[in-house]
Amino acid sequence: MVAQKLIFNSDDLDHLCMVYPKRIKTFDRIILKQVSMIGKHLLFVCLGNICRSPGAEAVMNGKLKTMGWERKIHCDSAGIIGFHAGEPADARMRKQAFKRGYAITSLSRQVKPDSDFDRFDMIIGMDDQNIKDLNALARSEDDRKKIFRMTDFSTQKIYNHIPDPYYTDKEGFELVLDLLEDACDGLMEHLKGENRSEFVNARF
Question: How far apart, in whole angstroms, are the C-alpha atoms of residue 33 and residue 35?
């Protein structure tokens, strides 16, 4: 039997896992319990939108594609300042990301408070200054509730921020990508836990 876009609540899903344990065993239960998060929008923000935030966008998109969630969660990135608006990401970041299988194709843009706080569900800054700047741009307390720090989702808790690699060498960009991959893994887990009970695409 094939089921597509079935409507379940979390209790229904847990029941299916008990009733069909052998059939469900061949699937990742977390994937089985995934929810339709169509319309979920994430915005990654750093200072100039040429290193860290486009890197975060690309890493997250890569992980979403691996999970089959690329149509459920939509990512973008922006900078606090617009100095590099219209430019591609730093060539060093693009090069190191490409080696890991991530394609950074976005062009830099500045945060647009009047539209971004309405459009995006989560606005994720890379460091304390980004968070401070985003809070200053927020129009209301509801806007501020959408602001997160990237390392809030880190699983290894080695750094409390994503350092700016702009004035570093190759190793600096590699470090940033390491931290972003870890934080994006944590962000994926956060999204799974936050959205657990709408629909799944499953084969039994």
Answer: 6
